[in-house]
Amino acid sequence: MPNTTTVQQSIPRVRIAPSPTGKLHIGTARSALFNYLFAHKLHGTFILRIEDTDRERSTLAYEESIKSGLQWLGLLWDEGPDAGGAYGPYRQSERTALYEKYLQELLDSGKAFICHHSSAEIQQEYEKKKEQKLPLVHRCDQLTGTDEKGVIRFRATEETITFTDLIRGNISVKASTLGDFSIAKSIHEPLYNFTVVVDDHKMHISHVIRGEDHISNTPKQVALYNAFGWTMPAFAHMPLILAPDRSKMSKRYGAVDIQEYRKMGYLPEALINFLALLGWNPGTEQEIFSLDELSEQFSLEHVQKGGAVFNQQKLDWLNGQYIKRLTSEELAQRAEPYLRDVLEGKKFDAALFQRVMPLAQQRMKTLRDIAEFAFFFSVAPYDPALLSWKDTSLEETRKYLEEVRTCIVGLDEAAWDEQRLEVAIMAHANALDNRGKMLWPLRVALSGLPQSPGPFSIAALLGKEQTLERLRTALQLLQ
Ligand code: GLU
Fold this sequence. Notes:
With 479 residues, this protein is of the alpha/beta class. The chain has 17 helices and 13 strands. The chain has 3 domains: 293 residues, HUPs (Rossmann fold, 3-Layer(aba) Sandwich); 51 residues; 95 residues, Orthogonal Bundle (Arc Repressor Mutant, subunit A), CATH 1.10.10.350.
């Protein structure tokens, strides 16, 4: 439970505070989700704050990618400086006056000071401390400095810093082990540990829910809350996302950029479901959750302490489940851009696409898998040798294809369906010593591929005209 100096608020205000120094990372997306769920469960507010104080590494393009990634996932933030219409996110670069005011306050009270030690001097200090097995932190009072400019540091106190992490329990750290930590490069250039405290306080953030990698920053932040006499928020640090070998999740094991998942054809709802289970468990057997269900069921008590291992098979399975649950119209709508991508401007037949959907739906694991059905719209050039079954000669193959053609030319177009085609063609195929001799070339003629769905279902979906057209092409190739 939160300790007495924690904000006691029944309606939470939470935030994610990404730095726009990269695209929307899977870890940030998971933080966004947990914050979103926590807020929604209790009808609270979810805030997006762009931490762009690092002016060299922050870009607007990354900010855009973070925002569009969150929007694609459906994790919409509730508040921003330009209220009404689309909320802009908060941006630290637009709040510099506020940071200057509070930095000045700390400087005036002597709780912070300008340190004149150069980095070479600090390096020397660290070397000595290493020998003495002391924490590698800078203490300004032990040395005189020569650096003219000087960073702003928070003066270490002798207090013990204590806070309660809602996932990890009580944590105590001696302030002296933090050293005189830096809080700004200059009065105009505040650093993360400082701005985060000012902003979380000014934005009335009730719960800071973020990745475990920030747990070591928290004592510094708590020290600042104490210095200002501000009530601190509750903290909850989520387990790291780990690769299957329990190393830090990296590109080697799967995409780390959320937009990559979109390109690969994952559905946002499947990814949300997957991310929710990376560190949280419902305590039941349920595996499929909508965002609303997650909002109802989510609780920090069910967030694990240990690392959450990324499981690609689970994501693929979930995605397949979500694809199966779509209506075929919905799937068509979502898969169309992926198909058009591979067709590269070649003719797209909307009615045929609708007909193909139920077959595709059974087989697709991702939206991009629709590419496997592109042959319905355009057959890629293929080697005529592919048409013959095993060592059947091209001449013989041609004979079988002619036979199929003659057989189906007579079929009534109004009664053109898989079953009738099968009955009609099998009557001929079964008469051969091996029916593959006829069925294989037929399938290749219709798909142009070494592997595809069966010939009757392709022919049924293509319709009579297209089927005959493709047979004609194959026969020409065999001449
Ligand atoms: N800007 C920090 C980050 O991107 C925010 C950490 C926090 O949530 O306090 O990791």
